[in-house]
Design a protein that fits this description.
Helix 4 packs across helix 6 and helix 7 crosses helix 11. It is built from twelve helices and no strands. The chain is mostly helical. It folds into two domains: 71 residues, Cytochrome Bc1 Complex, Chain D, domain 2, CATH 1.10.760; 114 residues, Cytochrome Bc1 Complex, Chain D, domain 2 (Orthogonal Bundle), CATH 1.10.760.
Length: 246
C-alpha cells in the first residue's frame, strides 16, 4: 500500500468514526431529569420500579408508606441500620432528597407477584396464622394485625406491609430485630416483640406470611387498628413523614 493510499484510508477511517459518533448521539435516548431516572440505582437491588428482587433478600419498596421509607433511608444513611452498601449510597444525600425518594416509591401502585409456596406442614402454618391474627397473650406477643393493619398492608404514615415480601427477607429481618442488629429510631416496639419470639415462631411467621396473596388494590391503612401501634407511633420520633419548613 502506497503512502497516499494509507493517508486516504486513515482519513476515511476517521470520517467513519466521526459519523458513527454523530449517529450514536442522534439515536441515544434523551435523558430525563426525573426522580424515576435518578432512582435507577435503587432498582439494581430492589427490582424494576422497586417491585422486589428475585433473590429473596431485597424487599419491595414500591407502595410502602412514605414515612416508613424515609425513616429507613435516614437510618441507613446515618448508620443506625447497618448495611454498608446502603450507607455509602445514601451518605451524600440530604433529608429533603430522601423525602423525595421516599415519596416517589410510596406513590407507585404496581402489581405484586404470586405468593411463595409454603414448605412447612399445616401445623406450622396454623401457628404462624395464629401469631399474625391473635398473637400470644401469655408471652405478651401482640398480633401482627394490631400494628400492620387488618390486611397486613401497613398503616400510614410509617408501618410497612408484611405481605408481598420474600420469605428469606422476613426471616432475616425478624432475626435482625431479635439480635439487636435492627432497631427503630424511637420507641422500639418491634424489637420488644421480636425478642419474645423463638426461632420456631420466626419460621412459622415467615412461612405463613410469604404464602399469602396480596389483596387486590391494597394500600396502607390510614388508621392504626390496635393500641400497640398507636402507642408506638405516639412515642416514636420521626414516625410521620417530616415536612420542610415553609
Amino acid at each position: 500500500m502506497s503512502r497516499s493510499t494509507r493517508a486516504v484510508s486513515k482519513y476515511a477511517l476517521a470520517a467513519l468514526v466521526v459519523a458513527a459518533g454523530v449517529a450514536g448521539a442522534a439515536g441515544a435516548p434523551k435523558f430525563e431529569d426525573t426522580m424515576a431516572q435518578r432512582v435507577l440505582a435503587c432498582t439494581g437491588c430492589h427490582g424494576q420500579q422497586g417491585r422486589a428482587a428475585s433473590d429473596g433478600y431485597y424487599p419491595r419498596i414500591a407502595g410502602k408508606p412514605a414515612g416508613y421509607l424515609y425513616n429507613q433511608l435516614v437510618s441507613f444513611r446515618d448508620g443506625q441500620r447497618p448495611y454498608r452498601l446502603m450507607t455509602l449510597l445514601l451518605a451524600p444525600l440530604t433529608d429533603d432528597y430522601l423525602r423525595e425518594i421516599a415519596q416517589h416509591f410510596a406513590d407507585l401502585e404496581l402489581s405484586y407477584p404470586p405468593p411463595q409456596a409454603a414448605t412447612a406442614d399445616l401445623q406450622v402454618l396454623h401457628r404462624g396464622e395464629t401469631l399474625v391474627r391473635q398473637g400470644d397473650a401469655q408471652r405478651r406477643l401482640a398480633a401482627c394485625v394490631e400494628c400492620h393493619g387488618a390486611q397486613l398492608m401497613g398503616v400510614q404514615p410509617a408501618i410497612p406491609a408484611l405481605l408481598g415480601l420474600p420469605r428469606d427477607y422476613i426471616n432475616a429481618q425478624l432475626g435482625a430485630w431479635r439480635t439487636g442488629n435492627r432497631h427503630a429510631r424511637g420507641a422500639d416496639c418491634m424489637a420488644l416483640i421480636a425478642q419474645r419470639l423463638d426461632p420456631s415462631d420466626v419460621f412459622a411467621l415467615s412461612q405463613w406470611l410469604a404464602a399469602q396473596p396480596v389483596p387486590p388494590a391494597s394500600r396502607p391503612a390510614d388508621v392504626a387498628p390496635g393500641p400497640t401501634a398507636r402507642d408506638c407511633l405516639a412515642t416514636a420520633p420521626g414516625s410521620t413523614l417530616p415536612r420542610s419548613p415553609p
